[in-house]
Design goal:
With 380 residues, the chain is of the alpha+beta class. It has eleven helices and ten strands. Helix content is 50%, strand content 15%. The chain is globular.
Amino acid sequence: MKRQIFAAEHDAFRETVRTFLAKEVLPHYEQWERDGIVSREAWRAAGRQGLLGLAVPEEFGGGGNDDFRYSAVLAEEFTRAGVSGLALGLHNDIVGPYLTGLSTPEQKRRWLPGFCSGEIITAIAMTEPGAGSDLQGIRTTAEDRGDHWLLNGSKTFISNGILADLVVVVARTSPEGGAKGLSLLVVERGAAGFERGRNLEKIGQKSQDTAELFFHDVRVPKENLLGERDGGFLHLMTNLAQERMGIAVAGIAAAEHLLEITTRYVKEREAFGRPLAKLQHVRFEIAEMATECAVTRTFLDRCVVEHAEGTLDAVHASMAKWWATELQKRVADRCLQLHGGYGYMAEFPVARAFTDGRIQTIYGGTTEIMKEIIGRSLLS
């Protein structure tokens, strides 16, 4: 079915993204996978191409357009290219709204130009060794010392953790338990007591640097408080819907791409003297996946439009996130199976998609958390 949500300007932007991928990413990607990290030059190239800070006001070097459909195009094209390491979505769609929506005029002048040029790479540090999807369990603390906050604690599984020049840290600034007393503090590269642990070795997304972060008596200036003191939980809840939509968009794009390459493969690969596509079981598998993708795409596109218009609620964002990512996981498994032994070979795109995509049902809130959010809305 022909998609109806994009206009000519979105199609032009898609071509820009494809050109950027072909020139600045794909020629270097295998080396980044071996290195476990992308080059900083790729970030600067993304800035020069106008792919960073899409929603940041033009006065700070951004695109000045908060239409989420541009972010959707970016996520779709990066997913189809199979390049998860250059985390522009994290930078633009997860960290970006905190900086544009919560920062003071002085903070905007200090951070946003570099954010848009690629000179400042960002990360957000929520997850801790003992607190994942449940933000109420956060133990990192920030003590008010008059002219600064004294930050202590640790974070883990932080995407962009090695490269990040600016980290939005979720910390407890008041002793109240649960969701109360959390604040967002911005820690900048070079701060005394801020240490990065190892670049964590993962089963997929090898070139996406993911790190442990440690804070030992870090003096965070009072002017680096982002948003309201003790308002962190509300700030996080406000922006999580966009994070989950970005993950969902990548999920359906990955499923569709896997279906495309597997459909080509079963037409070409022969078994028992004829193409796999002639086997009824294979045709049924392709038919089921194609139908599931088509139905999911219709729902996701509706959610993308509503989010672009500012009307999407957290419940439907949660529905989109859990359904699209679980579909991605199922499709990846079934497509790998249809590739047979070749599907287990790292050189085949389906193998990398299988390992790279497995995290989708976990980060941004697990599938189980998404179901809990939906269930509470219906039964409370």
